[in-house]
Amino acid sequence: MEIIKINNHIHLIGQDNSIISSSIGIISGEDYSLMVDTGASQAQLKTLEGGIERKELPGNIRYAIITHFHLDHLSNLKYLPLIKVIASKNTSRYIHVDQIIDKAVDLDLQDLKVTVFPLPSVHARGSIGVYLPKEQITFIGDALCMKEKDGKPYTNKDITINMVNTLRSYPTKKYLLGHEPSSLTQDQISDYLDSIYSQCRSSRSTDVFLSGNLIF
Ligand SMILES: [Zn+2]
User: Fold this and answer.
1) pLDDT values of the chain reduced to their tens digit, one per residue, 216 residues
2) Residue 198: inside a domain
3) How many domains does the chain have?
4) How far does residue 105's CA lie from ligand 1's centre (Å)?
5) Has residue 208 been placed in a domain?
6) Within a domain: residue 200?
């Protein structure tokens, strides 16, 4: 597993392809630092420890923001007993959550502001996103993943319209995802968002079967 440097404040530890695991985001702040998801493989935690020892990654990680309740995003929490958890109310049905996100909340890391916000998504109830306004970078977990029925992608009309509206309200140059590809630019996903948005808007039914070139 490698440590991917996005910028001075943000690193990613990629997914471990030998098991189902999400990537881990690290947001470094002066006062404290954050993880975005914890992944699910102990090799990822070894990579994290090594990065901290080499001072490539911050030693003051205090919180883990969990983007949604799926195990591949959070099962490493059991090895991180000192880390406090920020997540949605729905996620708190599965794990202990120290700070529940039910509306957008700003965290002040002293040299960096971070907004944690509810992100409606058909992939998982209670998904949240993490926005860095200065860098215009947004962590979106697996929110873009659609559902599937008989091999065909479909989604829920209202949830998807709300998701696209929410994403558009946070001007973003780079999106960081829970799985590979680990990042996408605004240009790379804007057609996708436009397409699912207009298909949902013009649908009369709640379940919308999607057509076109879907990346997720
Ligand atoms: Zn997931």
Assistant:
1) 899 999 999 999 999 999 999 999 999 999 999 999 999 999 999 999 999 999 999 999 999 999 999 999 999 999 999 999 999 999 999 999 999 999 999 999 999 999 999 999 999 999 999 999 999 999 999 999 999 888 888 999 999 999 999 999 999 999 999 999 889 999 989 988 999 999 999 999 999 999 876 666
2) no
3) 1
4) 22
5) no
6) no
- Please give the distance, rounded to the nearest whole angstrom, from the Cα atom of residue 32 to the centre of ligand 1: 27
The residue written with tokens 């700070």 in the block is 99
Residue 133 in any domain: the answer is yes
Distances (CA, A) of 145 to 73, 120, 153, 155, 202: 15, 12, 9, 9, 20
Q: What is the CATH number of the domain that holds 29?
A: 3.60.15.10
Tell me which residue range forms the domain holding 35.
3-144+176-186
Q: Alpha-carbon distance 112 to 45, whole Å?
A: 25
124 CA to centre of ligand 1 in angstroms: 7
Is the whole-model pTM more than 0.85? yes
